[in-house]
Structure formats: C-alpha cells, structure tokens
Amino acid sequence: MFSKGSKQSNDAPPAAAEKSGGLLKSLKRGLSKTRDLLLTDVGDLVPRGGKIDEAALEELENRLLQADVGIDATSAILDNLRERARKAGDGDPGDLLRAAMLDILAPVAQPLDVSTANKPFVIMAVGVNGVGKTTTLGKLGAHLRDSHHKVLLAAGDTFRAAAIEQLQEWGERTGLPVIAQSHGSDAASVVFDAIHSGRARGSDVVLADTAGRLHTKDYLMTELKKVRRVIDKIEPRPDYEVLLVIDASTGQNALVQAKEFHQAIGLTGIVLTKLDGTARGGIVFALAQNLGLPIRYIGVGERIEDLRPFDAESFVDALLAQ
Amino acid sequence: MFDNLSERLGRTLKNLRGQGRLSEDNISEAMREVRMALLEADVALPVVKDFIEHVRERAIGQEVATSLTPGQVVIKIVHEELVRLMGESATPLSLNVAPPAVILLAGLQGAGKTTTAVKLARHIRDDLKRSVKVVSCDVYRPAAIDQLHAYADQAGIEYLPSDSSQKPLDIARDAVATVRRQGVETLIVDTAGRLHVDEDMMAEVQALNSDLSPAETLFVIDSMMGQDAVKSAEAFNNALPLSGVILTKVDGDARGGAALSVRHVTGKPIKFLGSGEKFDALEAFHPERVASRILGMGDVLSLIEEVERKTDQDKAKKMAAKIKKGGFDLDDFRDQINEMNRMGGMSSLLDKLPGTGQLPAGALNQVNDGMFNRLGTIIDSMTQKERRKPDIINGSRKKRIAAGSGTSVQEVNKLLKQFGQMQKTMKRMKRKGGLQKMLQGMGGGGGGGLPPGFKP
C-alpha cells in the first residue's frame, strides 16, 4: 500500500505511527516561513526594550499584509499595539505584539468537543473546491479513532469523480468503515443513511464529506441546505459540527466564503489546511475578527499528527517564535 | 463587501473637483486608496508597490480636461496599466513541434489541475482539431488517477491508464511512447499537486519536465490565492521552464489579484481561465476582464468609455462657451437631454454606477427616463423664438405648448421655473468647462446627478 516510490504520499496516513516532537515544535516547523518573516523582523525592527516608532509600525503593517491578515485585521492589530505601547511605555515590543494578536485569536480557539447524548456526533466538512476536505476528514478520523472513538465515514461528495473512492481508500488505510452510495446520488441521503447506520452500529462520530462547491453557485448551496434540513429532521436530532475547511493560501476571499457558507448552513467551526507551505494563514485573523467562529484545527503537514487542534498561543508563538 | 476602487476614489477625490490637473499632492491620497484596493484584491504587496509607482508617474501632470472626474481619470490610468501589465490576450497554445506535443500541468494541491487537464483536452480536440489523450502521473493522492479517468469518460476524452504503484516518470514515458505509436498528436500529462517548498516533489516534476521536453509547461493556479501566490509562482517558475499560466475557479467571486502577482513574477502569459464545473468552461484570457475584476468595477469602466465615446467634444466646448456668456437656452437644454438619451438614458447611467444600490429606496424611482422625455417633448412643442427667449412665453403660449406636448400648463411652468434656476446657476459658474463639469456630475455618482438647480 505504501510502495509508492520513495516519497510518502501527501494524503496518505504515515506508514508507522510517528510520534511528533511536541505541538509547538511541529507548529513552528509548519509556520517557520511566517516566523522568519514576522518574528525575526519584529526583533530587527525594534531592538528589545526599544520604542515602536511609526517606521517600525509601517514595516510591521507590510509584514502582516503579506501574511494575508488583510487590511482591517492588520489595522486592528496595529491600533491595539499602539495603544499597548502607549500604556506600557517600555514593554518589550515582541510581547506587546503577541498580546495584540492574541486579543483577536484567543477568543476563537475553542477545541471541538464530540461528546453528545445523542450518538453519533456528526461532523460535516464543507468548503470550496480543492481545500482538502476529504484529506482533513481522513486525518480527523484517524485522530478520533486513536482517542478511542468509534468512527464512521460518510462519502457525501457524490459529485466529484472518484471522491467516493478517495474516502474509501482513507477508510482502508485507517481501518474505518465507510458509508457510500453511487456517484451522483443524493448527498443528503448518504448522510442520512450514515447517521442511521452509525446509530445501529453504536458509532460515536460520523464524519461526512461533501462536494467542494464555490459559494457563488446557488444550486450547490441549496443542496447543502438540504443536507442540513435532513439532519435536523432526524429524531432525536443529532448534535453536529459544520466545519468550513479553508486553504491557508487563500486570500481575502476566504472571508466571503466563510460568510456565504455560514449564511447557507450555519457553520460551527473552521479548519485551516496546508500551512506547511509558505502560505501564512493570516486570514484567520480576519476570520476571527469578522465572524468569531471557533477555529478547530490547523493542518501543518502531511502526517496525520500534523492535523492539530488550533491553539491561539502556539499559533501566535510560532509566528513570533520566541 | 469590498469597496470597489471607484467608490474609494470617489470619496478621496471629492475635493479634487475643479482642479484641472493631477498633481503629486492631490494623488498621493488616491494612490493610498489604489493600494488598499489592490491589497484587498490579493495582489501581492511587492507587486502592489511597483504598480503604484508606475501609476503615480503616469498620473502626475495628467490633465483632467475631458468629461471625466479626477477619480475617473485615476481609475482609467490604473485600469490601463493593469491591462498592460497583465499581458497579451488569448495567447494560443503553441503545439507546433514534432508530434506528439506534450503538455505538462503543474501546480499546488487543489489548484484544479485534473479538471483543467480534461478541459484543455476538450479545447484541443474541439477547437484545435487535434487528436489528444490524457494521462495522470498523480500516484500520491488517493484515487487521483480514477478522478482523471472518470472526468475523461464524462467529457468523452481518451485516457491512458496508469497505476499508483508505478513511478510518475515511467507512466509519462510509457504514455509518450504509446501516443507516438498510435499517432496521437497531443498528450496532456496531469501531475500530482505539490508544495513549492517540497524539494523532493519539485525535483520529481523537474525530472518529468526535462525528460518529456513538453511543448507547453503550464502552471495551474487557483484564482482565490492570496499573497503567497507570488512565492509559489516564483518557485515553480524557477524550477520549470513555464510557457504559460492557467488561472482556475474564476467562477467564484475572488478578485483574482493572484493573476497580476503571477504575471509579474513569472512574466509568462496567462493562457486560459477555468470557469466552471463543465468541461467546456475554459476561456481564453482577456486582460481587460481580469483587470476590471481586480478593481471590482466592471461597468464603471465601460461607462467611462461610453461617456468618452459618446460625448461630442466639440459640442460640449461650444456649449461651455455659451454658458460662459450666459447664453444657455432651451435648445441647449434639449441637446443635453438628447445627449443623455444617447448614453442610454439617466436610469441606465445610474445603473452602471457603483453605489446606486446604497441610495435610499425611492430615490432611483424618482429618476425616470420618462420624466426627461416629457421635458424634451415640452421643449419640442415650443417655437424657435420661444426656445431662445423663454421670457416671451406668456399664458396663451403656455396653453399652446401644453396642448402640443400632451402635458399641462403646470408642467410647462415647472420646466420654465427649473430652467430659470439653471440659467442663474450657470451664470455663476464662470469657470471654464462648466458644462463639462455638469456632465461629470452625472458620471460622478451619488446625488449630484442632475444639472445644478434642477430637481425632478
């Protein structure tokens, strides 16, 4: 199964259960580029114990903008930093910046809790095309399995060619059962089946994949609403999480995506993927500021361990690399 | 949710009205707005900086003597520069090599390579009338090869089978040998998505490329990408001799500033836009369209062009001279109404302006073209003498005009009263180009749409 050349698969679970070298280390590795860009420079811009002047702020603004933080969130961070610098006077600029950034991110760092009285807990992944929904669910399934949950996968992406096969392959690799119908079948019906099947099997969690869809396509958003309506009608109504999966390299459009998906089906959390490139994922600041939706996980690498619960301090620390 | 550039500039440049020339002072604020607009559109910051310098140089000293507002002049320059930097339009594939011509697709994960491969195959088969097959070298993502096969089947495109136990290079070599034997003219090679910082994977695609020496090596990139587009494009451009770029998912509503970033760092032409789930949803690239999209203002630009094209410059000058002398008469007023109708009427002008959506409800309803037409009809029912000297219009003339135009004496009175106010206002406007400024008022958006002193 893993005899696929010397390179380990991007999407494949690890061949052996590699133990990670700690959350912060892994985050730093994933975010190293951001750190290089942001952190080092804060140090360069303002010597420890020095004053934050306008030139330093402008440079900092450039750095934040280049991390996709966006104009509004960048101004908010800088205003906050100015205010803190004015009050604290001689505080370390790095500490002040860290605090200013945490003000935005700390409130949205809420881990996902899958405990429920009405098992199974349902997690549905939604998002635009190519953000990594199926891969995220595969990894999440392995995580939940490892924390002793009975997991069932539901192949709700009935649209994209071979999406069902992709999830089934994840099922094989992780040893998790997969509920699937044929290509082109009704996504709501797949999810409905999976929840009932999960009840019959005593599953703790059902992970439902959905087809990638651009938020501008009304008919596809309508389909998503139907999936939700169907879940809502199941007696007793299951508790569920609707995760919006966002590619860390996405620019300011991520905000529009989040708003549109939220309006269509009511999001309850966000996953930020592909932080292992040079993309900095600064869009989480804009998302946190505008929508305040909990950020549940981030993907910082190819291995299953690299899907991490989102932790604001680690995230900011990795950015600031103290 | 984003302000488009004309709204931004409209606010910034309000105070600029009446200045005949853009100067360093008065455009620096405007350049700040342009910068924000481009950043919101995800154009990479270094690219934005270069671009702003460019525009600033061009804008300084630019005359604002045409029928445009300073804001519109700035937008025009920004747009023209964007179009210019965006490169050639509709660059065709160059497949004139000894067959089989190989097309290699490379890019990050989730950019849309597989979908694009099949769309490209359709384009080659249907538009270029060449035989074509596709093959997948993505042995990494689960079921990626199945995905290409399924898409190819749906689109009626032939594919060469491959297996995830094979090495990508072997798959590609076999495929080239096969299509050569079969006499197929074109082979599209889909590759696995890869991060540009992944050295092994980049080495793999380099090896593929040097072994296949493709006729086209195309970089596929998601139009929703943010600031990082610059880095990944740079890395792929350094690793591979790219011949062009395909921008995908433009059927979303991202501004697509990545297009400018990628173009800026690679210098390679953007050849196609992927714009939908259907397999014929591959469009030739047109720089104007993408430039307008980045600025978030499709129709404002066509409006500017329309005003420029349709305003008869000579007539406008003559009229301005007349106003200066205070000789603006009802004939001229009639001409103005005609002018406006030529541009599709007031409501169509308003439709094209950004921000009309924010007007209070009912405001738009008050501006109807029927009202202007009725004014025109009233003037048409006057004699030449009456139009030149409205003062002579007495009670019986009013009755005649009302009957002739199918209106009422009250409406004739209203018109004359408004016209009187207009004349007064115009006499006060001594500065050159007064009438042109009025026309600008129409184009400038907001409530200043009507000639001074004129209330519907």
Automatic annotation (TrEMBL), chain A:
Keyword Transcription regulation: no
Entry's Gene Ontology BP terms: SRP-dependent cotranslational protein targeting to membrane
GO cellular component, one term: plasma membrane
Comp. bias (Polar residues): 1-11
GO molecular function, one term: signal recognition particle binding
Top EC group: hydrolase
Subunit structure: Part of the signal recognition particle protein translocation system, which is composed of SRP and FtsY. SRP is a ribonucleoprotein composed of Ffh and a 4.5S RNA molecule.
Function in brief: Involved in targeting and insertion of nascent membrane proteins into the cytoplasmic membrane. Acts as a receptor for the complex formed by the signal recognition particle (SRP) and the ribosome-nascent chain (RNC). Interaction with SRP-RNC leads to the transfer of the RNC complex to the Sec translocase for insertion into the membrane, the hydrolysis of GTP by both Ffh and FtsY, and the dissociation of the SRP-FtsY complex into the individual components.
Protein name: Signal recognition particle receptor FtsY
Natural source organism: Methylohalomonas lacus
From TrEMBL, chain B:
InterPro entries attached to this UniProt entry: AAA+_ATPase (IPR003593), P-loop_NTPase (IPR027417), Signal_recog_part_SRP54_M_sf (IPR036891), Signal_recog_particl_SRP54_hlx (IPR013822), Signal_recog_particle_SRP54_M (IPR004125), SRP (IPR004780), SRP54 (IPR022941), SRP54_GTPase_dom (IPR000897)
Catalytic activity of the protein: GTP + H2O = GDP + phosphate + H(+)
UniProt keyword list: Cytoplasm, GTP-binding, Hydrolase, Nucleotide-binding, Ribonucleoprotein, RNA-binding, Signal recognition particle
Compartments reported by the entry: Cytoplasm
Keyword Hydrolase: yes
Annotated residues for binding of GTP: 107-114, 190-194, 248-251
Pfam families linked: SRP54 (PF00448), SRP54_N (PF02881), SRP_SPB (PF02978)
Gene Ontology CC terms: signal recognition particle
CDD domains: SRP_G
GO MF annotation list: 7S RNA binding; GTP binding; GTPase activity
Keyword Electron transport: no
The EC number(s) this enzyme carries: 3.6.5.4
SUPFAM superfamilies documented for this protein: P-loop containing nucleoside triphosphate hydrolases, Signal peptide-binding domain
Domain SRP54-type proteins GTP-binding as annotated: residue spans: 269-282
Gene Ontology terms: biological process: SRP-dependent cotranslational protein targeting to membrane
Domain commentary: Composed of three domains: the N-terminal N domain, which is responsible for interactions with the ribosome, the central G domain, which binds GTP, and the C-terminal M domain, which binds the RNA and the signal sequence of the RNC.
Subunit and partners: Part of the signal recognition particle protein translocation system, which is composed of SRP and FtsY. SRP is a ribonucleoprotein composed of Ffh and a 4.5S RNA molecule.
UniProt similarity note: Belongs to the GTP-binding SRP family. SRP54 subfamily.
Main function: Involved in targeting and insertion of nascent membrane proteins into the cytoplasmic membrane. Binds to the hydrophobic signal sequence of the ribosome-nascent chain (RNC) as it emerges from the ribosomes. The SRP-RNC complex is then targeted to the cytoplasmic membrane where it interacts with the SRP receptor FtsY. Interaction with FtsY leads to the transfer of the RNC complex to the Sec translocase for insertion into the membrane, the hydrolysis of GTP by both Ffh and FtsY, and the dissociation of the SRP-FtsY complex into the individual components.
Name of the featured protein: Signal recognition particle protein
Gene giving rise to this polypeptide: ffh
